[in-house]
Design goal:
Length: about 300
């Protein structure tokens, strides 16, 4: 048993030395090997690697996409000198671990501060060139794309890639919202009044046009009626003339009867006339009237 103790101790020592002499790099990681605090090399591929124990050490860095979340909205002024609260998030990852370590000493929080500062400055420049409407909706995608491209060019200097930049919230400050809503309400009322005015004018125009068409139709109808009446009177006069030509005495007698009929509509109608007047011509005749004339009996 005593003879086996040295062997066991040797095996344990070898195992400890081997465990301190090797390290594994995961596919989700980068690794940097240092010797007495000095950078030696960077491992970007997954696998098993070796180092000198006690003299060399290894630090690991995440190669996955990381999130940069702005802690508070930034107030940025538009081209109209109107303030906006702008809140953004960004996605980034390490692409050059050696430059990343040399630039920010591998400190993730320091890298986030550097990226946030860059993105804020670029967003400010982009929004300063645009109106509120363009910043909020019309050119929002363009602002995000331009910001990502410019920020990525700067991030390459510290070995980082900006994958995406998103504007999470772009809105007016609370103290400005009330004034904006009031102006919007006034503008909507102005537009409503303008539409009502235009509607009233159009209504009057339609009514005037309808009245004009009515007058034209009535005038045309009256014209046609008068023409038809004139044609009828002409035909009636022609018929009367033809009848008068055939028997003038009968025609005169008939016309007198029509006159009597129109004059004495009621039994109570009374007319005082001279018996010798022409109106009583046929009322005075008994049986010996003119030749061809019908007989009438005077009362």
């Amino acid at each position: 048993m005593k003879a086996a103790l040295p062997i066991i101790a040797f095996v344990v020592a070898v195992f400890l030395v081997l465990s301190q002499s090797s390290y594994t790099v995961d596919q989700r990681q980068y690794a940097i090997r240092f010797q007495l605090g000095e950078f030696i090399d960077a491992k970007t591929e997954a696998g098993l690697y070796f180092k000198v124990p006690l003299v060399q050490n290894v630090k690991f860095y995440d190669r996955r996409i990381l999130l940069l979340d702005a802690p508070r909205p930034d107030r940025i002024t538009t081209s109209e000198k109107k303030p906006l609260n702008v809140d953004f998030i960004a996605y980034w990852r390490i692409v050059d671990v050696r430059r990343y370590y040399q630039s920010v000493t591998g400190d993730e929080e320091l890298a986030k501060q550097r990226l946030a500062q860059t993105i804020r400055a670029i967003l400010g420049q982009e929004i300063n060139k645009r109106t509120i409407h363009e910043a909020i909706s019309a050119e929002r995608d363009k602002i995000m794309t331009t910001t990502r491209q410019r920020a990525d060019a700067d991030a390459k200097q510290i070995g980082v890639e900006i994958v995406d930049v998103r504007l999470r919230r772009v809105e007016l400050p609370e103290e400005v919202l009330a004034q904006v809503y009031q102006r919007m309400e006034s503008e909507r009322k102005r537009v409503a009044n303008e539409l009502r005015s235009q509607g009233g004018a159009e209504s009057e125009k339609i009514r005037a046009d309808a009245d004009r068409q009515r007058e034209v139709i009535l005038a045309d109808a009256y014209k046609q009626a008068q023409k038809a009446k004139g044609d009828g009177d002409a035909k009636a006069s022609a018929i009367y003339a033809a009848a008068y030509g055939q028997n003038p005495e009968f025609y005169s007698f008939y016309r007198s009867l029509e006159t009597y009929k129109a004059t004495f509509r009621n039994k109570s109608d009374i007319m005082v006339l001279d018996p010798s007047s022409e109106f009583c011509q046929y009322l005075k005749q008994s049986g010996g009237g003119a030749k061809g004339a019908p007989r009438a009996r005077a009362k």
